[in-house]
Amino acid sequence: xxxxxxxxxxxxxxxxxxxxxxxxxxxxxxxxxxxxxxxxxxxxxxxxxxxxxxxxxxxxxxxxxxxxxxxxxxxxxxxxxxxxxxxxxxxxxxxxxxxxxxxxxxxxxxxxxxxxxxxxxxxxxxxxxxxxxxxxxxxxxxxxxxxxxxxxxxxxxxxxxxxxxxxxxxxxxxxxxxxxxxxxxxxxxxxxxxxxxxxxxxxxxxxxxxxxxxxxxxxxxxxxxxxxxxxxxxxxxxxxxxxxxxxxxxxxxxxxxxxxxxxx
Length: 264
Description:
- The protein is mainly α.
- It has one domain (3-262).
- It has helices spanning 3-6, 24-40, 44-60, 65-73, 76-89, 104-130, 133-143, 154-184, 193-199, 201-224, 243-262.
């Protein structure tokens, strides 16, 4: 499986669903609430409740379960490292006699941390899969709008965020093409850790060159279209909250509150 197919985070799925129809500001605030309570608690009961809520949102968004699972699986090495590190560095009772320093308490804590990462990645995947980069940028700009009164470049921040999010799948596609091209030239990407680290150099160098070239092309295109920042710019589509958005905010607030209650 290629990196582009495996890495689902940042990819927008243009389907018709109640979640897609929500205001991007509502989805952003709800996702931040989910992420906040996920980070703040370590309760298995709260995580179980949040998992059920996220599964319900995925079903409402009509996203393929394999699409969401691929996004979580793309960080499997991070999850494994977190689990093993917690198992070895948390004091307690040995889980296996033949495995020194790996404790039962560490295994439980590592499983909770791995669960936390999976929930966070799934929440971010649902947000980016149900909200186009342009909608996400407009929603972020409106949410941060009050900061513009104190001199914060809100428009530029939101634009940079949208561009970075938009180019994540593009860079994954470019990485896959570079790996295939280097493999066709006889490069090997297997072996031990040192061999894999050395084989990454023929991929990273052309990848950085391609990213810089794309950035230069984007800057020239924006300059040719007379882009001069946020001053004097208007929106083609104005964001307006509806009754559906208000109901979604209430549901998200209830879910976050219940998760906080379960964590006690």
